[in-house]
Amino acid sequence: MLDLATGPDHACVVSTGEVWCWGSGSSKALGNDSTSRKISPVQALGITDATAVTAGVRHTCAIVGTGQVMCWGYSGAVLGTSGADVGTPTAIPGLADAVAIEAEANNTCAIKADQSVVCWGEGLYGVNGDGTLDDTGTPVPVIGLTGVTALRGDDSMCASASDGLWCWGRNDNGEAGSLPFLTSPDPVVLPRAAVRAADPAVIIPAGPARFADTRPTGQTIDGAHQAEGRRASGSIHRVRIAGRGDVPTGADAVVVNLTAVQASGPGYATVYPCSAEVPTASSLNYTAGVNLGNEVIAQLDTDGDLCVFVFTGTHLTLDVTGYLPFSSPYEPVAPARLVDTRPGTFTIDGADIGAGPFQDGEVRAYSIAGRGGVRDQAAAVVLNVTAIRPTERSFVTMWPCSAERPTTSSLNVVPGVNRANELMVALDGEGDTCVFVRGSAHVAIDVVGQLGDVTSLRSFSPQRFVDTRSSGVTFDGRYAGPRALNDGETLKVQVAGRGNVPASATAVVVNLTVVNPTGVGYVTLYPCSEEAPLASSLNYVEGVNGANDVIAQLSSDGSLCAFVFAGTHVLFDVSGALSA
Fold first, then answer.
1. Shortest CA distance to 520 belongs to which of 535, 540, 544?
2. How far apart, in whole angstroms, are the C-alpha atoms of residue 43 and residue 33?
3. Among 331, 322, 276, which Cα is nearest to 296's?
4. What is the pTM of this model?
5. Which residues, in sequence order, are CB contacts of 277 under 8 Å at separation 6+?
6. In what order do the strands lie in the sheet with 442-451?
7. From edge to edge, which strands make up the β-sheet containing 150-153?
8. Main-chain dihedrals φ then ψ at residue 453, nearest 5 degrees
9. pLDDT (tens digit, 0 to 9) for every residue of the chain, 580 residues total?
10. I need a labelling partner for 530 at 20 to 30 A (CA). Which of 50, 205, 344, 549 fits?
11. DSSP letter at 77?
């Protein structure tokens, strides 16, 4: 037996290339040119080289030979027309490379050798997936599907594709995954949480690649969203992400480095899915005269777009460094403020408000799990931490409270400049994180996502992998000192196989810091096996230390390169690793 199929009233099996069916012969669904019911299998006439079979309500189809499809039974399902039923196996025109088939009630769909999908038969409920309700006897392509590996259906059809789980057809109860509960003739991608692989990838590294640059000289990976002009105060900039560069259609979220360039004054930017209201949270804080960036995990809307709200006028650049596949265990949550030490402010639940600024060397513990949409069992969260009104050059460190405080920084600040950084932070067993501040500053913390306990991502207390200062210290003594990088210099760093990073790591979560830069410039992190891309991981100005948390793809040998435009010391603090 090669394959077995059951419909509501009949069943069929493939055995040594022949198709045998039994049960109801309604509409001649058994393939023996008879409407009689059979309690013993009868052979579908003329088929000797079948490899697969599928059964609808009153029709049957089989793959034969090298990918041809033969069908018989109800004429609407086989020919797409009313009339005499088809009593014996009949070839479906224009289909010679099918690798899998799946029948719905009165139509059939096939995966072709190129992993696209075609359907034919009655178009009731839009089950042919071509955006219409039309009947057809000639296979029509299902809109937009690529990389399909599996099909299942019954009045609605679903396909597992490289960029998501897509469904179309009948939707009375939401079975096609769309709103409103009406017929869905166009495929709809289901939320990422709908399907989980046994050990799913959290983030697929990509790029870095520039997806938007509003400056007059701006250039992007494909010419879209470039030179669109300065964003006005209070405006919203919409950017198409999915389907561009390495980001597939149907991606749920992306890792994007957002930079404010030539801002007209102090302000902030908020990244969010365009289908939502602008949340009360910030993704990036900036000020006039300093180009500042922050890497964030940004959820896309169903069109594959993200929106950026700017409080004060500025140019923007967006560099994508990865995307989240539909099966990713990362769960975006609506940005929610969990901590704000300033008086007269607010948080999502009224806790952790107005405790006053951190004093030099102070440590505070905050409960994260169970608040703002974060599950009690979350193993790690993505937090945007902001230092507000710092009084001196200082830094902030975050880590799981059950561990020793690491000798690393999560955010570097200078006096009087509000600055934010988005971090992937491991929680301790109680769901808490600790915050240390060197110097004095108010702190605000916004949660934007969470992770369960998955083996493809390892979150851990930060470890210093690189410190080029003469006094620099790393956890294993490698890449400590002896000097700053020069203008245009590239530093190659071995990352995989060191510290808590496994040799199999494909990307790491690294807090990149510049110290004592000699001019206006930027750092780009990229796999050493590639050319340095047109993208930035961190922007800086002369004399101002800055940091950004980055998800950086590694080369196949586990190395990571850092290109600096203007001379500076660099520090790498690694707090997580992704494996294939």
1. 540
2. 10
3. 322
4. 0.59
5. none
6. 331-340, 442-451, 380-388, 419-426
7. 150-153, 156-161, 164-169, 184-189
8. -90, 100
9. 578 999 999 999 999 999 999 999 999 999 999 999 999 999 999 999 999 999 999 999 999 999 999 999 999 999 999 889 999 999 999 999 999 999 999 999 999 999 999 999 999 888 998 888 899 999 999 988 888 888 988 778 888 887 677 888 887 776 655 544 455 566 665 543 333 344 456 778 787 889 999 999 999 999 999 999 999 999 999 999 998 998 887 787 888 889 999 999 989 898 888 988 887 777 888 888 888 888 888 888 888 899 999 999 999 999 998 888 766 777 777 778 899 999 999 899 999 999 999 999 999 999 999 999 898 888 888 888 989 999 988 889 998 999 888 878 888 888 888 888 888 888 899 999 999 999 999 999 999 888 766 556 777 778 999 999 999 999 999 999 989 999 999 999 999 999 999 998 888 888 888 999 999 899 999 999 888 888 888 888 888 888 888 888 899 999 999 999 999 999 999 888 887 6
10. 549
11. H
> CA-to-CA distance for 536 and 524, rounded, in angstroms?
5
With CA atoms as reference, report the closest residue to 282 among 253, 308, 262, 300. Answer: 308
Q: How far apart are CA 439 and CA 316, in angstroms?
A: 31
Q: Residue 197: its pLDDT value, please?
A: 41
Sign of CA dihedral 76, 78, 83, 88: negative
The span from the CA of 117 to the CA of 139, in Å, is 9
Which tokens hold the place of 89?
């196996």
How does DSSP classify residue 480?
B
Pair of tokens at residue 485 = 């990088």
Nearest in space to 323 (alpha carbons), one of 202, 224, 213, 423 = 202
- With beta carbons less than 8 A apart as the criterion, state whether 551 and 422 touch: no
What does the pLDDT read at residue 189? 55
Helix/strand/coil for 194: helix
Would you call 503 helix, strand, or coil by DSSP?
Answer: coil
Structure tokens at 556: 């196949």
Type of residue numbered 141: P
Sheet containing 394-399: give its strands across.
362-367, 432-438, 394-399, 411-413
Contact 95, 137 (CB under 8 A): no
Please state whether the peptide bond connecting residue 482 to the residue before it is cis, i.e. omega within 30 degrees of 0.
yes
Distance CA 26, CA 17 (A): 24
Contacts of 197 (CB under 8 A, 6+ apart): 327
Q: Which residues contact 491 (CB under 8 A, 6 or more apart)?
A: 466, 468, 485, 561, 562, 564, 570
CA torsion, points 438, 442, 448, 454, in degrees to nearest 10?
A: 30
Strands of 56-124 (E only): list them: 59-64, 68-73, 86-91, 98-103, 107-112, 117-121
- The H or E element that residue 78 is part of is helix 75-78
Cβ atoms of 523 and 562 closer than 8 Å = yes
Asked if 341 contacts 443 with a C-beta cutoff of 8 angstroms, the reply is yes
Using the structure block, give the residue that is written with the tokens 């000639």: 138
Phi, psi of 352 (to 5 degrees): 55, 50
Q: CA-to-CA distance for 580 and 576, rounded, in angstroms?
A: 14
308 Cβ contact partners less than 8 Å away, ≥ 6 residues apart: 231, 236, 237, 239, 258, 269, 270, 271, 283, 316, 318
